[in-house]
Amino acid sequence: MLKVLVAIKRVVDYNVRVRVKPDGSGVALDGLKMSINPFDEIAIEEALKLKERGQAAEVLIATVGDSEAQQQLRTGLAMGADRALLIETAAPTEPLVVARALRALIERERPDLVLLGKQAIDDDHAQTGPMLAALWDRPQATFASRLEIDGARARVTREIDAGLEVIDVDLPAVVTTDLRLNQPRYVKLPEILKAKKKPLDVLPLSSLGVDARTRLVVERVDAPAPRARGIRVQNAAELVAVLRQRGAL
Amino acid sequence: MARVLVVAECSGERLNASTAKCVACASKITSEVVVAVFAPSAAEAPAEAASLAGVSRVVHVEWSSPPLAASLAPEVASLASGCTHVLGPSSTFGKDLLPRVAALLGVGQVSDVMSVLDPYRFKRPIYAGNAIATVRAPSDSTLVATVRLASYAAAGSAAPPAPIEIRSPGTAAPSHTRFVELRAEHADRPDLQTATRVVAGGRAMGSAENFARLYELADALGAAVGASRAAVDSGFVANDLQVGQTGKIIAPELYVAIGISGAIQHLTGIKDARTIVAINRDPDAPIFEIADVGLVADWASAVPELIAALRALPR
After folding, report:
1. Domain A2-245 coded CATH 3.30.1490.180
2. Class of B197-311 in CATH
3. What ranges do the domains of chain B cover?
4. Mind spelling out the 3-state secondary structure of chain A?
């Protein structure tokens, strides 16, 4: 039976449209609804499915972030995770720092499988999974749309540009999730209440002894350049004529 | 002087079009661009890379197994010594490989470079392209980055070709990761990621049968076919046709969106297209906000009319 670690990130909710601050210092986050990164939610769901199928013994969820991220860990516990861990830091992080922290956590927890989203929808880096696999010197299976566990091996179907690639990886391994892996469950009220009693530990990032310095500096953030306003046509023939005029056909 | 190592992406034994775009980005950083091609000894890809404008040297690593990140990353990390930068495409190939390389080198990564300000300062999209960050990376260590393909036109060809150096792999591939199979689903059509024209359908197509009508239009245009996430989720088409934040980011000359309402996640994937055409029966659909040419019409009447109008064009 597997021990599964799911790494999650607290991000601005998927349905919120963010605004760039006028002074270019970043994106205005005050008062916005925050959620579990949708791909990470899929990772939690997959871990829970493994447990429900009798293939996983324990599901541990972890995040690196400030104390507010406890809300998202509680949501993960309400979904059904057994325990949660906040690796706490008030400082900004970046994927390499998060990967190092998770690597240190793996040393303590010794999971057989690490699941996380293929990318976070805030900074869109898509780096943490492969970085963690490299630091751990273990296999990676990114963009998973199907995961089958068979003993000490996982067969993963990956959504790549050329189609669907199937690979086998020996466990322990890192798997990053794509949209079509599953549909995360809705959390019901009784579970939310029950989740309050589940263990949620807090560990300072500084206690893990990893290099937590960030190396990338965001100098400024701007709104994207708008596109010029378009025109309307009445029918297909006019559409073709306009496209010819523009040199698009 | 900066020296950039570009990791080439191959499709079979040919060079994938993403490589020429990475070379174009690399040329904005330096004039010394080395392309690493992992391909079988008789493959055409190394010669194709050598003929790209801006390439100063090609390293052909003779490689006959599938391009798995776990096997390639140590090779790329070792080739990176002597280079200031390592670039790869922000395709699924590069997104899988480059972060693994960066971690082996002990450095961070700049993902999705859309513009080079100087060799260590870049613009990149965040929040699904709703904001553009200007980032600075340290100049005292190797810089690893992926290139947002939609932001760069492919490098042209140059004569004479750059020299090709042939090498054998320097590291033993790990046995913990094994390729099983690749199921390619649209090998007979233009590649969505690099096509100059794309026709895409959305939820309003209603069914897989209806969606198939778009192939006729795509044929009349010589276009690749794409889909919105809603159309993929509705089961009309396979997921590798998905265009948007979590699918493919594309920048064709012509993009025709049919029955696509224009969720922000979708618009993120197409907004660098030169000309965007929207056909939708809802006049208030958000897709019209970024369309260059809009036609308010039901697809069922507009698509046959459009096919007829295209076929009537003088050849």
Report:
1. no
2. alpha beta
3. 4-167, 197-311
4. CEEEEEEECEEECCCCCCEECCCCCCEECCCCCEEECHHHHHHHHHHHHHHHCCCEEEEEEEEEECHHHHHHHHHHHHHCCCEEEEEECCCCCCHHHHHHHHHHHHHHHCCCEEEEECCCCCCCCCCHHHHHHHHHCCCEEEEEEEEEEECCEEEEEEEECCEEEEEEEECCEEEEECHHHCCCCCCCHHHHHHHCCCCEEEEEHHHHCCCCCCCCEEEEEECCCCCCCCEEECCHHHHHHHHHHCCCC
Least confident residue range of A34-48, B24-38, B233-247: B233-247
Averaged pLDDT, B134-140: 97
pLDDT tens track for A59-92: 999 999 999 999 999 999 999 999 999 999 999 9
Q: In percent, how much of chain A has pLDDT > 90?
A: 88
Which of B65, B96, B232 should one mutate to test binding to chain A, selecting the residue with the greatest count of A CBs within 10 A? B96
Q: Do B95 and A126 touch (CB under 8 A)?
A: yes
Contact yes or no for A64/A203 (Cβ under 8 A): no
What residue of A is the nearest CA neighbor of B220?
Answer: A249
Q: What is the pLDDT of residue B43?
A: 95
- Residue A79 and residue A182 in contact, taking contact as beta carbons nearer than 8 Å: no
Q: Tell if the CB–CB gap between B305 and A235 is shorter than 8 Å.
A: yes
Please report the pLDDT score of residue B196 as a whole number.
87
CATH superfamily of B4-167: HUPs (3.40.50.620)
Distance from CA of A226 to the nearest CA of B (A): 9
**pLDDT > 90? residue B44:** yes
Distance from CA of A70 to the nearest CA of B (A): 22
What is the predicted pLDDT for the residue at A229? Answer: 84
Topology agreement, domain B4-167 and domain B197-311: yes
Chain B residue with minimum CA distance to A121: B127
Report the complex ipTM: 0.94
The answer to whether the CB of A73 falls within 8 A of the CB of A35 is no
Rg over alpha carbons for chain B, rounded to the nearest Å, is 21
Q: Contacts of residue B174 in chain A, CB cutoff 8 Å? A: 139
Which residue ranges make up each domain of chain A? 2-245
Report how far residue B88's alpha carbon sits from residue B126's, in angstroms, rounded to the nearest whole number: 19
Average pLDDT, chain B: 94
Does the distance separating the beta carbons of B294 and A230 come in below 8 Å? yes
Nearest by CB to A239, from B73, B102, B277: name it. Answer: B277
